Protein backbone atom coordinates (compact mmCIF):
# COMPACT_ATOMS: atom_id res chain seq x y z
CA UNK A 1 0.00 0.00 0.00
CA UNK A 2 1.24 3.48 -0.80
CA UNK A 3 0.39 6.76 0.87
CA UNK A 4 0.45 10.35 -0.28
CA UNK A 5 1.69 12.84 2.31
CA UNK A 6 1.81 16.60 2.14
CA UNK A 7 4.81 17.79 4.16
CA UNK A 8 6.33 21.14 5.07
CA UNK A 9 10.05 21.46 4.38
CA UNK A 10 12.64 24.00 5.49
CA UNK A 11 14.49 25.36 2.45
CA UNK A 12 18.21 26.29 2.46
CA UNK A 13 17.23 29.99 2.29
CA UNK A 14 15.25 29.69 5.54
CA UNK A 15 11.81 29.77 3.90
CA UNK A 16 9.28 26.96 4.07
CA UNK A 17 7.55 25.13 1.26
CA UNK A 18 5.28 22.12 0.85
CA UNK A 19 6.00 18.87 -0.91
CA UNK A 20 3.75 15.99 -1.85
CA UNK A 21 5.56 12.71 -1.16
CA UNK A 22 4.52 9.21 -2.14
CA UNK A 23 5.43 6.84 0.71
CA UNK A 24 6.15 3.43 -0.79
CA UNK A 25 7.05 0.10 0.89
CA UNK A 26 9.81 -0.60 -1.64
CA UNK A 27 10.03 -3.15 -4.42
CA UNK A 28 12.18 -5.82 -6.01
CA UNK A 29 12.98 -6.71 -9.59
CA UNK A 30 14.75 -9.78 -10.96
CA UNK A 31 16.86 -10.16 -14.07
CA UNK A 32 16.52 -13.91 -14.59
CA UNK A 33 18.91 -15.76 -16.89
CA UNK A 34 17.51 -19.27 -17.52
CA UNK A 35 20.36 -20.10 -19.91
CA UNK A 36 23.61 -18.21 -20.51
CA UNK A 37 22.92 -15.28 -22.81
CA UNK A 38 19.12 -15.45 -22.43
CA UNK A 39 16.91 -13.33 -20.19
CA UNK A 40 13.24 -13.53 -19.22
CA UNK A 41 11.00 -10.51 -19.79
CA UNK A 42 7.33 -10.21 -18.98
CA UNK A 43 4.88 -8.01 -20.83
CA UNK A 44 1.94 -6.53 -19.03
CA UNK A 45 -0.46 -3.65 -19.40
CA UNK A 46 0.30 -0.69 -17.11
CA UNK A 47 -2.72 1.54 -16.57
CA UNK A 48 -0.66 4.55 -15.40
CA UNK A 49 1.16 4.53 -18.77
CA UNK A 50 -1.84 3.32 -20.82
CA UNK A 51 0.35 0.77 -22.59
CA UNK A 52 1.91 -2.68 -22.30
CA UNK A 53 5.57 -2.75 -21.29
CA UNK A 54 8.35 -5.33 -21.47
CA UNK A 55 9.81 -5.63 -17.97
CA UNK A 56 11.89 -7.87 -15.78
CA UNK A 57 9.73 -9.64 -13.16
CA UNK A 58 9.06 -7.29 -10.24
CA UNK A 59 6.74 -6.45 -7.39
CA UNK A 60 6.19 -4.52 -4.17
CA UNK A 61 7.57 -5.63 -0.86
CA UNK A 62 5.08 -6.93 1.68
CA UNK A 63 5.23 -5.19 5.10
CA UNK A 64 8.42 -6.32 6.86
CA UNK A 65 9.44 -8.60 3.98
CA UNK A 66 13.13 -9.17 3.30
CA UNK A 67 14.00 -8.01 -0.25
CA UNK A 68 16.01 -11.20 -0.92
CA UNK A 69 12.95 -13.35 -0.11
CA UNK A 70 10.67 -11.03 -2.11
CA UNK A 71 12.87 -11.38 -5.20
CA UNK A 72 12.59 -15.17 -5.07
CA UNK A 73 8.82 -14.91 -4.48
CA UNK A 74 8.20 -12.47 -7.35
CA UNK A 75 10.27 -14.48 -9.82
CA UNK A 76 8.30 -17.61 -8.96
CA UNK A 77 4.90 -15.88 -9.05
CA UNK A 78 5.38 -14.19 -12.42
CA UNK A 79 7.46 -16.81 -14.27
CA UNK A 80 7.20 -20.07 -12.36
CA UNK A 81 11.00 -20.25 -12.11
CA UNK A 82 12.83 -21.07 -8.88
CA UNK A 83 16.36 -19.68 -8.67
CA UNK A 84 19.24 -21.55 -7.06
CA UNK A 85 21.40 -18.41 -7.16
CA UNK A 86 20.18 -14.86 -6.53
CA UNK A 87 22.56 -11.91 -6.22
CA UNK A 88 21.68 -8.25 -5.56
CA UNK A 89 23.16 -6.05 -8.29
CA UNK A 90 21.61 -2.62 -7.60
CA UNK A 91 19.55 -0.65 -5.11
CA UNK A 92 18.19 2.74 -6.16
CA UNK A 93 15.43 5.32 -5.67
CA UNK A 94 12.97 5.15 -8.55
CA UNK A 95 11.65 8.75 -8.49
CA UNK A 96 13.30 10.68 -5.62
CA UNK A 97 11.66 13.95 -6.63
CA UNK A 98 8.31 12.78 -5.24
CA UNK A 99 8.60 9.21 -3.90
CA UNK A 100 10.71 7.33 -1.35
CA UNK A 101 10.47 3.98 -3.17
CA UNK A 102 13.69 1.95 -3.05
CA UNK A 103 14.01 -0.71 -5.72
CA UNK A 104 16.27 -3.72 -5.15
CA UNK A 105 17.43 -5.32 -8.42
CA UNK A 106 18.61 -8.94 -8.43
CA UNK A 107 20.33 -11.28 -10.87
CA UNK A 108 19.03 -14.88 -10.81
CA UNK A 109 20.66 -17.94 -12.36
CA UNK A 110 20.50 -21.72 -12.07
CA UNK A 111 16.76 -21.62 -12.70
CA UNK A 112 14.34 -24.52 -12.45
CA UNK A 113 11.00 -24.21 -14.28
CA UNK A 114 7.78 -24.49 -12.30
CA UNK A 115 4.20 -23.22 -12.21
CA UNK A 116 3.28 -19.55 -12.52
CA UNK A 117 1.30 -18.14 -9.56
CA UNK A 118 -0.10 -14.82 -10.76
CA UNK A 119 -2.39 -12.69 -8.62
CA UNK A 120 -5.96 -12.80 -9.93
CA UNK A 121 -5.62 -9.26 -11.34
CA UNK A 122 -2.30 -9.95 -13.12
CA UNK A 123 -2.15 -10.84 -16.80
CA UNK A 124 1.43 -11.41 -17.89
CA UNK A 125 3.01 -12.66 -21.11
CA UNK A 126 6.48 -14.19 -20.61
CA UNK A 127 9.19 -14.51 -23.24
CA UNK A 128 12.93 -15.21 -23.47
CA UNK A 129 15.31 -12.87 -25.27
CA UNK A 130 19.02 -12.98 -26.14
CA UNK A 131 21.46 -10.15 -25.38
CA UNK A 132 21.41 -9.21 -29.05
CA UNK A 133 17.60 -9.07 -29.09
CA UNK A 134 17.31 -6.90 -25.96
CA UNK A 135 20.08 -4.63 -27.22
CA UNK A 136 18.12 -4.10 -30.43
CA UNK A 137 14.88 -3.60 -28.48
CA UNK A 138 16.56 -0.91 -26.36
CA UNK A 139 18.01 0.79 -29.45
CA UNK A 140 14.56 0.83 -31.08
CA UNK A 141 12.99 2.30 -27.91
CA UNK A 142 10.87 -0.80 -27.24
CA UNK A 143 11.91 -1.09 -23.59
CA UNK A 144 10.63 1.92 -21.67
CA UNK A 145 10.69 0.69 -18.08
CA UNK A 146 13.53 2.21 -16.00
CA UNK A 147 14.22 -0.79 -13.74
CA UNK A 148 14.40 -3.03 -16.80
CA UNK A 149 16.74 -0.66 -18.61
CA UNK A 150 19.05 -0.49 -15.56
CA UNK A 151 19.16 -4.28 -15.27
CA UNK A 152 19.55 -4.95 -18.99
CA UNK A 153 22.30 -2.37 -19.42
CA UNK A 154 24.17 -4.01 -16.53
CA UNK A 155 23.63 -7.47 -18.04
CA UNK A 156 24.67 -6.47 -21.55
CA UNK A 157 27.90 -4.93 -20.24
CA UNK A 158 28.97 -7.91 -18.14
CA UNK A 159 30.74 -11.09 -19.17
CA UNK A 160 28.07 -13.23 -17.54
UniProtKB/TrEMBL annotation:
<dbReference type="InterPro" id="IPR015797">
    <property type="entry name" value="NUDIX_hydrolase-like_dom_sf"/>
</dbReference>
<dbReference type="GO" id="GO:0016787">
    <property type="term" value="F:hydrolase activity"/>
</dbReference>
<dbReference type="InterPro" id="IPR020084">
    <property type="entry name" value="NUDIX_hydrolase_CS"/>
</dbReference>
<dbReference type="InterPro" id="IPR020476">
    <property type="entry name" value="Nudix_hydrolase"/>
</dbReference>
<comment type="similarity">
    <text>Belongs to the Nudix hydrolase family.</text>
</comment>
<dbReference type="Pfam" id="PF00293">
    <property type="entry name" value="NUDIX"/>
</dbReference>
<dbReference type="InterPro" id="IPR000086">
    <property type="entry name" value="NUDIX_hydrolase_dom"/>
</dbReference>
<protein>
    <submittedName>
        <fullName>NUDIX hydrolase</fullName>
        <ecNumber>3.6.-.-</ecNumber>
    </submittedName>
</protein>
<feature type="domain" description="Nudix hydrolase">
    <location>
        <begin position="22"/>
        <end position="151"/>
    </location>
</feature>
<keyword id="KW-0378">Hydrolase</keyword>
Amino acid sequence: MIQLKKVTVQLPNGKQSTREVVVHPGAVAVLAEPQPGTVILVRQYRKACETSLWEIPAGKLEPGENPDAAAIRELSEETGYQASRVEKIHRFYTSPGFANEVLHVYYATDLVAGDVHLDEDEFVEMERFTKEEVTQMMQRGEINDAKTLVALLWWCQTDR
